[in-house]
Amino acid sequence: MKIVCLPGDGIGVEVTAAAREVLAVLAPDLELEDHPFGGAAILASGTPFPDETLAACRQADAVLLGAVGLPRFDAADVRPEQGLIALRKALDVYANLRPSRQGPVDLLVVRELVGGLYYGPKGTRDDGTVFDTLEYHPSQVERIAHRAFAIARGRRRRVTSVDKANVLETSRMWRRVVTEVAAQYPDVELEHVLVDAAAMQLVTAPERFDVILTENTFGDILSDEASAVTGGLGLAASASLGDGGPGIFEPVHGSAPDIAGRGIANPAAMLRSAALMLEHGLGRPDEARRLDTAVDRALERSPTPDLGGTATTAGAVAAVVEELRR
Questions:
Q1: pTM of this prediction?
Q2: Could you tell me how far CA 320 lies from the centroid of its own chain?
């Protein structure tokens, strides 16, 4: 099986190298190859998403992405993040899965990933007004809802659909379509919660949630909040899946230029993303469970600075490898 690695920028390069080292021990039969992406690709070729990188991704069994973003491009016309949005659209990975677990909390955000505010028409009018358009087609809502309910059947059979139906027309359509889909899953409980209430409940009672289903922008924000509640972005993994072709597996954190090159980045989020890749992208759930367990045990005895410890990136990787070899 061929895995395309997109190390990207900042600590993305470091955590991708960590994943390579661990996968070489756990699944040595995998073929991993690096391709330019993000800010590094802009510096090399002027575009964050070169054509050869797209071609390689389409031919791969899975895409393992580090992180993108460099401060020098924050206000530029061509930015690393544009490559990320284009990659998701090109592979049509509409279902973004972001698990968060710690103690009694075990929730999964199922976020619609290729529609909504980030992909709608945008621009500037002659009077200086700037606009971004939030729009969804019912079919986009229907397919992500089916994905969430199917996943919930394998968990605690409860879906919380998050919207802003008291204000937004798109949310009213979202709620209607999700309710229609729910009728096909009578064994799964559905509740509708407004996004502001959901944000509050994630802080005060995160253990009440099982599967959170929501649109792109709300899901982006709520999944980061859920990660903070359960230990921070250094632990947060994600899988982005379509109905066919390769998925994208990446840590939720960014490129963290403030700590890049210092050897202290927590590789856990990337390693947990690799576990999601093994399970959802490659159909190897036993290896996925082995990796998740090894990461959990390694973090207990070798926490990185973001978790209150002193382990370096290399030290954390060594602890994971040791756990895998036991």
A1: 0.92
A2: 22
Four-way CATH pick for 100-235: 3.40.718.10, 3.40.640.10, 3.30.70.890, 3.40.710.10? 3.40.718.10
Q: Select from 1, 20, 12 the least CA-distant residue to 41.
A: 12
Look at residue 233 in the predicted model and tell me its pLDDT: 86
Alpha-carbon gap, residue 166 to 151, rounded angstroms: 27
DSSP string spanning 76-107?
Answer: SSS-HHHHHHHHHHHHT--EEEEEEEETTEEE
Which pLDDT belongs to residue 242?
Answer: 96
Give 41-69 pLDDT, tens digit per residue. 999 999 999 999 999 999 999 999 999 99
Assess whether the region 1-93+242-326 and the region 100-235 belong to the same CATH fold. Answer: yes
Domain ranges of the chain: 1-93+242-326, 100-235
Residue in this structure with the two tokens 């959990």, named with its chain if needed: 296
The residues, ordered by sequence, that sit 6+ positions from 278 with a Cβ below 8 Å of its Cβ are 27, 284, 285, 287, 288, 291
Known catalytic residues are 118, 164, 196, 220, 224
User: Cα dihedral sign for 166, 167, 173, 175?
Assistant: negative
DSSP string covering 231-283, please? T-GGG-EEEEE-SSS-EEEEESS---TTTTTSS----HHHHHHHHHIIIIISS
Span 1-93+242-326 CATH architecture:
3-Layer(aba) Sandwich (3.40)
For residues 237-261, average pLDDT: 96
The answer to whether 115 touches 215, Cβ cutoff 8 Å, is yes
Query: Letter for the amino acid at 165?
Result: A
Question: Measured between alpha carbons, how far is residue 138 from residues 55, 110, 170, 180, 225 in Å?
Answer: 30, 17, 9, 11, 27
For the segment 257-277, what is each residue's pLDDT rounded down to a tens digit?
999 999 999 999 999 999 999
Residue 312: both structure tokens together: 């370096």
Q: Which DSSP symbol is given to 157?
A: S
Q: How far is CA 254 from CA 18, 68, 110, 216, in A?
A: 16, 6, 20, 17
